[in-house]
Amino acid sequence: MSRNVVSELAPNGTLRAGINMANGLLVTGSTAAGAPTGVAPDMAQEIADRLGVAVAYVPFASPSEVAEAAGRDAWDIALIAAEPARAESMVFSAAYVEIEATYLVSESASFRAAEDVDRPGMRIAVSAGTAYDLYLTRSLKHAELQRTKGQAGAVDLFVTGKLDALAGLRPALKRQVEELPGTRILEGRFTAVQQAIGTKPANRAAAAFLQEFVAEAKASGLVARLIERHGVAGRLQIASGD
């Protein structure tokens, strides 16, 4: 292990890991002491073990809050979705898992596939600051995004505002379609949200280490074992590529 990696990521002997508590697939529970448990916390623990240091979880209520904290020296690594907008303040490893994002619509809607939604006059409810919000912001040509805080808020906006579509991660939408009679999930996806590990751009040695760590974690079966351990098989997919 390069001394530069340890000095960049844990100069005081503790690796501070920024955790997005809003992602119920990556954070699936907590210990008696209140520490988060799940695939993302376990990935952070594994990195700390490789470095030979302790881990301290730094919880955030949303991914946008994790990203916004990049300039405040609040964490040493951040486990959130890699997005070009976020890459301005951090450097990301390759993705270790990915989650499909698509739309929930009324059963009476005329469109069947995710790609059909980007039409003039279409209004889409979305949780502000999520990776799929950022993706849609730069990708949609015609449809209008209406943002609110959190997925629960987006569901409420979709229902009360009688919007045309609700954007979200497919596993969450599967739960929501059961709670909203007269709705369905569109075929296909508009993107796959890729969960990665970020660090500060100045941490060049650490960035190379994290890239190697993710590649080894996927190849060795570590990511697959964590997915099984935390009961999210079929909802989290191991990310393709390096």
Straight-line N-to-C gap: 21 Å
Number of domains: 2
Described by its quaternary structure, the protein is single chain
Task: Report the CATH architecture of the largest domain.
Answer: 3-Layer(aba) Sandwich
User: Given the C-alpha coordinates, what overall shape results?
Assistant: elongated
**How would you name the CATH homologous superfamily of the largest domain?**
Periplasmic binding protein-like II
| Total of helices | 8
| Average predicted local confidence, pLDDT | 95
Question: What percent strand?
Answer: 25-35%
- Class per helix and strand makeup: alpha/beta
**According to CATH, what is the topology of the largest domain?**
D-Maltodextrin-Binding Protein, domain 2
Q: Can you give the helix content as a percent range?
A: 25-40%
SSE pattern, N- to C-terminal: HEEEHEHEEEEHEHEHEEHHE
Any low-confidence stretches, pLDDT <50, length ≥5?
none
CATH structural class of the largest domain: Alpha Beta
Query: How many β-strand runs?
Result: 13
Largest sheet: 11 strands, mixed
CA-based gyration radius: 18 Å
How do the strands and helices of this protein lay out in sequence?
Layout: H1 3-9, E1 14-20, E2 29-30, E3 36-37, H2 39-51, E4 54-60, H3 63-68, E5 77-81, E6 91-92, E7 97-106, E8 123-127, H4 131-139, E9 144-148, H5 150-160, E10 165-169, H6 170-179, E11 183-185, E12 191-199, H7 204-219, H8 222-229, E13 237-238
Parallel strand pairs: 1-4, 1-5, 8-9, 8-10
Antiparallel strand pairs: 2-3, 5-12, 6-12, 7-10, 7-11, 7-12, 7-13
